[in-house]
Amino acid sequence: MSLTSILSAEAIEKAVKDCQAPDTFCYKKFFQLCGLSSKSPKEIKDVFQILDEDNSGFIEESELKYFLQRFVPGARTLTEAETKRFISAADDDSDGRIGMH
Fold this sequence. Notes:
Elements: H1 9-18, H2 27-34, H3 41-51, E1 58-60, H4 61-64, H5 67-71, H6 80-90, E2 97-99
Antiparallel strand pairs: 1-2
């Protein structure tokens, strides 16, 4: 399974282009632009599993740093500040990683 089997390649490209400059990544805007905000819980779980590279059931900070590259190879890495903001917004139990609910 690939991200483009769930999200359109055009929408992914648009979302990644929107946050090309360092410290411009906003996960809410990214999810909206790439179409993830309007996907079903199953589709969101499928995307989560693709992003969870080590299949631990969690997306750790080390995986999140390369978040954009999972959508578009060659995209920039997230800055440390962006990664920390993203994790703190989605980390429900304060364990420093994002779990699938």
